[in-house]
Amino acid sequence: MICCLVVTSFAAKRPFTLVIDAGHGGKDAGAPGKYSYEKNINLKVALAFGRYVEKNCPDVKVIYTRKTDVFIPLHERAAIANRNKADVFISIHTNSVASKKPISGLETYTMGMRRSGEKLSAAMRENDVILIEDNYQQHYSGFDPRSPESYIMFEVLNDKNMLESVELAKGIQKNVCRTANRPNKGVKQDAFLVLRETSMPACLIELGYITTPSEEAYLNSPSNQEAMGRGIYQAFVEYKARATHQPMPVKVEEPEPPVQKEKDETPVKQDVQETTAVPEAVETPAKQEQPVQKEVPVKQEPVVQKETPAKQEQPVKVDTVKTVKEVSPIFKVQFLASSTKFKSSDARFKGLEGVESYQEGGLWKYTVGSTGSYAEIRQLRAQVVKVFPQAFIVAFKNGEKMDTQKAIRESQHKK
């Protein structure tokens, strides 16, 4: 009887879920080298990493944002991880620089803001892909990846996830540099959109510099791609052992090498052909072959829930709530986002009154104020940034989030 209970308990346990994101793809080729594209390097290393996990970790469910050359929007990559309640999100990319000076080495990034005055080159280049997405202003609330001012809009993330992300990134740097003989350029923080939207520990790897000829040759070598995949795997199992308090696999079994295909890199001189495809999330449990399962993006409507005002000493006065017709845009100040649903009395709100929340992309997002006047909401934001410097303005219409710039134009037109 005891044995039956133990088996039942183990079977009911949720599998540890890993989402592997091969950056770019399809019409988004990523950074170009002399003879290859970033998107192909990213995919080959991602698949190599996934094969090691599938071969050696039967208790891990592996989900790929893509396994083929297709275009997946940044917000959908994070949504795949959030919908599947992933425990870890790892995004794989290849770096580039405009300088002719040879640069080499591996970098691993976690979500965060750099010091003022520093360039956001790595994040700006990776975030720039949203400009080829349909309706990107709607998905990213008017965010401009090329504007330094836009980066003040990044939200506060869960502190626990941030610390775990840094530990994961340190493990990746140590293991990949050792296993694949990569120069170590260290763990860094930057404002990556794909990391901002995830609600679990996450990091982004820059494998090397495709614009340096020797690096491009290294990154396109199948044996080096396999070595980098193994290094990422070693870091993952170390992280998982700490997170789950379970032992690491004693012996690492080598996965079967992929079937060799003809060279698939397109010369840089040719135009990149756009691939139209439905965003997919491919789940591959270890030691089982399953057909590719497509994740069809599900439109998530924000659900606004009014919270009871927090009882704090010396609260920031919010005196902008007005009755506005539903046909008009409503402006609010968003100041916090987290994977956790907080109570209205939570100390994280720092005394703000009239806090409301809505759910989007697997995260709870918190706002104050509700007015049809853009001038009034700007005044409110000026108060809120004193305690939440990253606070920014969002807009809703008929209960749905809308592009803030469009809402401003509508409100001004109706005057």
Architecture overview:
This protein is an alpha/beta fold and 415 residues long. The chain folds into 2 domains: 13-285, 3-Layer(aba) Sandwich (Aminopeptidase), CATH 3.40.630.40; 305-413, 2-Layer Sandwich (Alpha-Beta Plaits). The chain is 31% helix and 19% strand. It is built from 11 helices and 13 strands. The protein has helices spanning 2-12, 38-56, 74-83, 121-127, 136-139, 159-179, 193-196, 213-219, 222-244, 374-384, 404-413; strands spanning 16-22, 60-64, 88-95, 106-111, 184-190, 202-209, 282-285, 305-306, 330-338, 356-360, 363-371, 392-397, 400-402. The strands form 2 sheets. The protein has a 7-stranded mixed β-sheet, sandwiched between helices. Helix 2 crosses helix 9 and helix 6 (159-179) runs antiparallel to helix 9 (222-244). The longest helix is centred in the middle third of the chain and has 23 residues, at 222-244. The radius of gyration is 23 Å and the shape is globular. Residues 1-12, 114-120, 127-133, 136-142, 148-159, 262-280, 285-313 and 317-325 have low confidence and may be disordered.
How would you describe this structure in keywords?
single chain, 415 residues, alpha/beta, Aminopeptidase, Alpha-Beta Plaits, 2 domains, seven-stranded mixed beta sheet, six-stranded antiparallel beta sheet, 11 helices, globular, disordered N terminus
